[in-house]
Design a protein that fits this description.
five-stranded mixed sheet; 5 strands
């Protein structure tokens, strides 16, 4: 799984592609948190539409726990996935139950709206 991270003026953005890998996802989330800390930002847009495999619910739960328990910073994340990966909202529901703000969608516009970044591309 490949992860590219870029710090923008008002948020941190990541692009993810390839076969989903839980260990790489954990490292990517921690790297996003570090970029947010360094830039004083809390909004994160993850474009995961390039993930080529279906991400199981238990992996989504594990990622939510990393977001809530390991990042050391409060983040507001929008995760844009392929339509094929919208079969469950486990990541979102688990993260919310742990006090983290995560929105999963297959619509980039919806993700941008959630973060208040509608003018961004």
């Amino acid at each position: 799984m490949n992860i590219r991270i870029e710090t923008k003026a008002d948020h941190v953005r990541a692009w993810v592609d390839g076969e989903f890998d839980l260990a790489a996802a954990r490292e990517g989330i921690l790297a996003l948190a570090q970029k947010c800390r360094a830039a004083g930002l809390d909004r994160v847009l993850i474009d995961a539409r390039g993930v080529t495999t279906r991400v199981p619910a238990d992996y989504r739960e594990a990622v939510a726990k990393v977001i809530a328990d390991e990042t050391g910073v409060r983040l507001r994340l929008a995760v844009v996935v392929s339509t094929e990966n919208m079969f469950t909202k486990t990541l979102e529901r688990t993260a919310e139950s742990l006090g983290a703000e995560v929105h999963t969608t297959d619509s980039m516009a919806e993700g941008l709206i959630f973060l208040g970044l509608m003018g961004e591309r």
